[in-house]
Amino acid sequence: MRKNKLRVGLNIPDIDRNSIEAPTKYLINLAYALKDRIELYVIHNRTVAHPLLKEIQGIITPKEPILQELELRKHHLDIVHFNSIPSLEHLLLFKILNCKKVATIHGDIYWLRELVAEMGVNYYHPTYLIQRLMEPISCNFLDAIISVSHNLKYRLIKHLKLPESKIKVIHEGVSSAYKPLHDLSYIREKYNLEKPFILHVSNFSPKKNPQVLLKAFSILIKEGLNLDLIIVGARWNNKFVRNLISDSNLFDNVKILGYVPEQDLISLYNSAELFFFPSLHETFGFPIVEAMSCGTPVITSNVYSIPEVAGDVAILCDPQNYFEFACAIKHVLKDDKLKKSMRVKGLKEAKRFSWEKCAQDTVELYKQLLA
Predict the structure, then answer these.
(1) How many whole angstroms separate alpha carbon 285 and alpha carbon 296?
(2) Prediction pTM value
(3) Which of 10, 100, 156, 161 is the most exposed, fewest CB within 10 Å of its CB?
(4) Which residues touch 66 (CB under 8 Å, ≥6 apart)?
(5) DSSP letters of 191-235?
(6) pLDDT of 111-165, one tens digit each?
């Protein structure tokens, strides 16, 4: 007899780790939006304390192939939803489950030879090689793939040799908590923010373009602008970044806050003069949407999926041209009318991205697979 509700398992193996990484953030937010629409389970690998597991039943499985599949089989799931392309050994064994398999793909950087070279990473690194060899084969065992942007979709078709019909674009969302706020005095006191500031939010990696971030800001300081650069996110307090700050003599103007609670992050977006995000590569770009949702003007790059997400709201620049970024920042800072226009347009544009819409489109895909 057919069950009344879809039974779906979201695979979040390390739910208590990397919770501020974009892919994990995506699946956790999607889970909250899906929980009242379908019979939902969180698949993970060990007993952990996480708020999501107070609202959604967990399925703890071994990590090892066969053992994981045999444990999942007991739950008679209709669909297992992965957050990346699973390893081939698991997919070969997933016939044991007799269920549909969906994967959301968030990245393709290991396919992009020129970009990897710009980042100073070896394109032939074993990890990248294995992914490029495995993924086209593994995708044959998936029933559907979710791409988080149209820009990424067409690269996946090329890289993975997939039919267009197998890939559905479903944009990620932004929490309704990201919105304009009025009382922001506490955030300035908490982090000792005395000057006007530009905000950057990301977890450190070469693709976040730290050299251009700091070179562009350095031009502003040398020209006499009285402001700070606030960096929020993990792993920025490293020797490489400290050397960049030292070389540009920016110790008095750059503050690295590390990870901050979400409510503080929302207040920082609201308090910033603008949001500066010179990324070399994004397949979506959570911080761009978060900033727009708070009414913060955005200056970012004109590459990959960023223009698709930013629309005509942000000022887009060549990610290698730090002088162009500096000019754009000065232009926004000095033009109150432009700043106000960007705030209004950003709030409107951000409404395109919601977890409710993401969940609705995801459920429709599930139903299509089982029809």
Answers:
(1) 15
(2) 0.93
(3) 161
(4) 93, 96
(5) TT--S-EEEEE----GGG-HHHHHHHHHHHHHTT---EEEEESTT
(6) 999 999 888 889 998 989 999 999 999 999 999 999 999 999 999 999 999 999 9
- Residue 265: is it exposed, middle or buried by C-beta count within 10 angstroms (0-12/13-18/19+)? buried
Query: SS3 for 66-89, per residue?
Result: CHHHHHHHCCCCCEEEECCCCCHH
For domain 7-173+354-370, the CATH class is alpha beta
Residue 77 near residue 52, CB atoms below 8 Å: no
Q: How far apart are CA 218 and CA 207, in angstroms?
A: 20
**Closest-CA residue to 367 (of 5, 1, 2):** 5
Topology (CATH) of 185-350: Rossmann fold (3.40.50)
Question: How do residues 202-245 score in pLDDT, each as one tens digit?
Answer: 999 999 999 999 999 999 999 999 999 999 999 999 999 999 99
What residues does each domain of the chain span?
A: 7-173+354-370, 185-350
Token pair for residue 139? 């995708």
Per the CB < 8 A criterion, the answer to whether 357 and 37 are in contact is no
Domain 7-173+354-370 and domain 185-350, same fold? Reply is yes
